[in-house]
Design goal:
Elements (H helix, E strand, L loop, with lengths): L1 H16 L5 H57 L4 H30 L3 H32 L7 H18 L13 H25 L8 H20 L10 H18 L4
Amino acid sequence: MASGDRSSSSTKHETMAEPPYGMGQILSALFDCNKEKRAMRNTAEGNKAKSRMPEIGEAVFDIGYLLFDLVAAIVFFVRADGRTVFLLYGALALILGGGDAFHLLPRVSRALHGTTEKTEWRLGLGLAVSSVTMTVFYILLMYIWKATFPAIALPAPIAALVWGTALLRIAICLFPQNNWFRKEGSPRWSLFRNAPFIVTGVCLVVLYVMSGNANGYGLWRMAAAILISFGCYLPVTIWAKKRPKIGMLMIPKTCAYIWMIAMGLGLLSKI
């Protein structure tokens, strides 16, 4: 009986002393679990970084574009030598870069540091400001055409249309119904303000088609650049709120404006 008790006690002791997993196995399992968590975290961070690459690339492009406008404006003013056409080109580059900086710099900030309520507010303000400055851009471009081709009379109806539609667009941009500071904006008011803007653009296209390759300047290409810029800009204003990827069309639109300024730089040695 005592022997049976000792045998039973010994078996119980062995059962309690030998857990199903040894301490080494438990530590190894914990280590593997932590390792797996770190791998998942690194993968998530890597995917997040990859998803931000297009935004960072756009930010680099935007900064390069703004610097180009600034340098071009300085070159125009320094080399104008009293020539009205290049003083106007200098003002054009400043208006272009200065106005676009209001909405591009918040975009750069959002790409690098993420979005905040303040960033979104600054972006809305920038869109409002750039809508006005882009309108002034085309008024200046009309007078650049006039200074470049003094032998060709500026048709009075075109001048009246440019001024009338530009002032109408600027006035529409001032209405609070545009909802500049709300992400959804206002599709209806976007249509209201862009309809006269299209007429302004068409008038400038007509002018540069009229002058063609006069004096060998090759400024018929200005008409092509204007058409490209509007062709990229209008889909963005109509559909970008619902389909954000359409916003990438702003890159070729910006390239069209760079081309316009580059054409002016090319005239420095010709006029």
